[in-house]
């Protein structure tokens, strides 16, 4: 049973990006409850560090057995349900990160998340996951073409950028008028760069022009 001391140590390790220390603690336990609980922390940067940590720990468990990762994903989906007693707003981001790190489970859980592309309040996290997965499961972008295209004209620049990046990342093309409109879109948005571990501000067109 995790203790308050465990939580304090975990927070310290996550803040310092000491993933090996986190793993040494987690591998002897069922760590999901306490890690998911850290997604309720008020600091947005720290919550994203927790998202990264969940992906890292899941990838380590998956080296030997994916069942603990399945358990984590089921818990994350449950946490998006009103009946869970406390909705975890970053749960879609966490699902996106875990499946990016353990892609063998994409076929079992990925489409469930993408079905929430236009489901409030999880749209941003699901769009971010779509972009992350677009090269891993390009066929799904075609399956979800209608909501992705709808998002390309969203009033929210984050969703316009992520939807277009997901569509293009899957090897698809855009009609010339849509492509030109997005290329000239200078509205600024912010996203978390999972590789650089920081928030980045950019315009929609610039993001698509330099899309990782």
Report on the architecture of this protein.
The protein has 212 residues and is mainly alpha-helical. Helices cover 60% and strands 6% of the residues. The chain contains 13 helices and 2 strands, in the order ααααααααααααββα. The protein has a two-stranded antiparallel ribbon. A hairpin with a 4-residue loop joins strand 1 and strand 2. Helix 10 crosses helix 11. It is globular and about 55 Å long. The chain starts with a helix and ends with a helix. The model has no long low-confidence stretch (mean pLDDT 94).
Shape, per Cα inertia axes = globular
Biggest sheet: strands side by side, in what order? Answer: 1-2
What is the percent of helical residues?
55-70%
Q: What is the CA–CA distance across the termini?
A: 40 Å
In short:
This protein has helices spanning 4-15, 19-26, 32-37, 44-62, 67-78, 91-101, 106-114, 123-133, 138-143, 145-151, 157-169, 176-183, 204-209, and strands at 188-193, 198-203. It is mainly α and 212 residues long.
Question: What keyword list fits this structure?
Answer:
212 residues, mainly alpha
What does the secondary structure layout of this molecule look like, with pairings?
Elements: H1 4-15, H2 19-26, H3 32-37, H4 44-62, H5 67-78, H6 91-101, H7 106-114, H8 123-133, H9 138-143, H10 145-151, H11 157-169, H12 176-183, E1 188-193, E2 198-203, H13 204-209
Antiparallel strand pairs: 1-2
Helix pairs in contact: 2-4, 4-5, 4-6, 5-6, 6-7, 6-8, 8-11, 10-11
